[in-house]
Amino acid sequence: MTGGNRGIGRGIAESFAAGGDKVAVTYRSGGPPEGLLGVRCDITDAESVEAAFTEVEERQGPVEVLVANAGITKDTLLLRMSEDDWSAVVETNLTGSFRVAKRAAKGMLRQRRGRIIFISSVVGLLGSAGQVNYSASKAGLVGMARSMARELGSRSITANVVAPGFVETDMTAQLPEEKKAEYKAQIPLQRYASIEEVASAVHWLASDGGAYITGAVIPVDGGLGMGH
After folding, report:
1. Is the distance from CB of 39 to CB of 53 less than 8 angstroms?
2. What is the mean pLDDT of the chain?
3. What digits encode the pLDDT tens for the residues 116-144?
4. pLDDT-derived band at 228, boundaries 50, 70, 90
5. Which residue among the candidates 27, 134, 183, 192 is catalytic per the annotation?
6. Structural domain containing residue 73
7. In a domain, 226, yes or no
8. CA 47, CA 29: separation in Å to the nearest integer?
9. Residue 11 lies inside a defined structural domain of this protein
10. Confidence at 48, pLDDT banded by 50, 70, 90
């Protein structure tokens, strides 16, 4: 699990741990959740990714499920978006996910089984003003997952995408009440998702019940992005 020390990533990691799985989380700053193996890793650096996987494999064995969740935002309108605003977001969210998936796939191919799950966003297909870089990076995960699904499927390795909408996190809790009401008015279910609801979708894709699902985009967005 990349980016597993807070928010959605932490919730997903804790869901797997509660189910009895060995869980390792990578983080760039802060610290890992209590009771989980934490490995410091910068997914924009190939050597850091290699070192992190090596440590996890030595301490917990082969990686059977990868959840690529780490991501950043640098929101601003298109004409104000700098080259760095674009490059930093794409490098972390898309290229970083490519790095960890490629490294995980090596071990999965040897085992002839595995699950790769990318955490995208409803805005990856719906779009969002002020998030050209973020939306592009999250849309890219879909094409990447579907290509990997075709390449790796013969070895019983699946590759899927979970696309959350608005989720109850510390970040959304800080929004002004009028902005929360505005967003909820766009959602058919009229509420945000809980972190547990996102984690449940990821957990299902990794379970025996999700073994025949690959190349899919699973929305957890209350209907916000339906049709996409």
Report:
1. no
2. 95
3. 999 999 999 999 999 999 999 999 999 99
4. low
5. 134
6. 7-220
7. no
8. 17
9. yes
10. very high
Asked if residue 225 is part of any domain, the answer here is no
Answer yes or no: is 57 within a domain.
yes
The yes-or-no answer on residue 192 being catalytic is: no
* Residue 36 pLDDT: 93
> 49-69, pLDDT tens digit by residue?
999 999 999 999 999 999 999
Domain count, the chain: 1
